[in-house]
Design brief:
The protein is an alpha+beta fold and 343 residues long. 51% of the residues lie in helices and 12% in strands. The protein contains 15 helices and nine strands. A four-stranded antiparallel beta sheet has the order 4-5-3-6. It has a three-stranded antiparallel beta sheet with strand order 7-8-9. A hairpin with a 2-residue loop joins strand 4 and strand 5. The longest helix has 19 residues. The termini are far apart.
Length: 343
């Protein structure tokens, strides 16, 4: 990153008018404070990314042509729409993520899409709680409009028009596309003020609060009766909306689950149906062999074994001393070695 003095020397060498030079230097100074790279206009951005202005114009004026749209099934039923950018746009978004967005400090209670944080860390906060409230936000990515993304780039010090153009490279149909590499980080940045307000609320009532993407959790010895109402107001003020059908209030000794993990004891545990399914798969492979098992499932997935090992590893990450998990891992590791030696 060039210093102000280096930029001053550069403008002098280019015989830039003094009044214009001062405007440039003030612009650079504002951006340097944020730690973001200096970008003067969209042509400069194209140069930094090594692409032509014509290619960039095509993306800006016809963004739908640069996404592949498909659906995947949701665990809870229905389908999730994925909008995946093609390679050129993906490389641009990756540049924005790595060079501009990655330096933003997020709230400590936001656990999703962050290196070194996971659903395990998120759930641990709520271990052995007496009462718990979980809330879900409706259409989390889609509800974050382009105007809010443009405002983020303005905070970095970029001009109004450049901020809008950068937001256009990260948005589709006036929302954050689920499939763009910039969407997770941008959603965390937008939700930062929400996290501060809800954390403050939790502290006021001596509760614990975490957010994992669109999943919000409060826990403590006793939840105030008006907690849901207060949360609804704050969440609405911050531009989000609660999924009323997914509000879950758990009291006393009832089973409590956070981001798919049991927290109603002193130690995290994986849910029974997850373990039951793994036991069934391991048992069937032991008895009939992998190929017969896959034929029976009518699902000849070449990556199935790696996927199963990954699930066992997840179980052991949550429950390191789980005897079934340890034995299953040893069995699958040996099974994979035998497969390699026989080929």
């Amino acid at each position: 990153m060039k210093t102000i003095e280096e930029w001053d020397d550069f403008f002098k060498s280019q015989s830039v008018d003094n009044e214009l030079k001062q405007k440039y230097l003030q612009y650079i100074y504002n951006i340097n404070i944020s730690g973001a790279p200096v970008i003067f206009e969209i042509e400069h951005f194209a140069y930094l990314n090594g692409i032509s202005r014509n290619d960039l114009n095509e993306i800006l004026y016809s963004p739908n042509s640069f996404y592949r749209i498909f659906t995947i099934p949701k665990r809870s039923g229905g389908e999730r729409i994925i909008k995946s950018p093609y390679p050129l746009l993906h490389s641009i978004q990756k540049w924005i993520l790595e060079n501009i967005l990655s330096s933003v400090e997020l709230h400590n209670n936001a656990f999703a899409y962050r290196t070194g944080k996971s659903i395990i860390d998120n759930a641990k906060i709520h271990l052995n709680c007496n009462e718990m409230l979980t809330l879900d936000l409706v259409d989390f990515f889609g509800s974050i409009k382009q105007s809010r993304i443009a405002s983020i780039f303005k905070v970095f010090g970029y001009s109004k028009i450049l901020s809008y153009q950068l937001s256009s490279l990260c948005c589709l149909d006036n929302g954050l596309p689920q499939g763009a590499c910039t969407s997770p980080m941008l959603s965390n940045i937008v939700a930062k003020r929400l996290d501060y307000r809800l954390s403050g609320l939790a502290k006021k009532f001596n509760l614990k609060y975490t957010r994992y993407a669109d999943d919000l959790t409060f826990s403590g010895s006793s939840l105030p009766v008006n907690l849901i109402s207060i949360c609804r107001t704050i969440i609405s003020n911050e531009g989000f909306r609660i999924n009323e059908k997914k509000i879950k209030l758990k009291r006393c000794n009832t089973k409590k689950v956070v981001t798919g993990l049991n927290v109603h004891g002193k130690e995290l545990t994986v849910q029974r149906n997850y373990k039951r399914d793994l036991r069934m798969q391991i048992h069937t492979i032991r008895k009939y062999g992998l190929l017969n098992f896959l034929k029976h499932k009518n699902h000849l997935d070449p990556l199935y074994l790696d996927s199963l090992i990954g699930k066992i590893n997840f179980l052991l990450n949550v429950e390191p001393s789980n005897s079934f998990g340890l034995k299953a891992k040893e069995f699958l590791s040996q099974f994979k070695k035998n497969q390699k030696s026989s080929t």
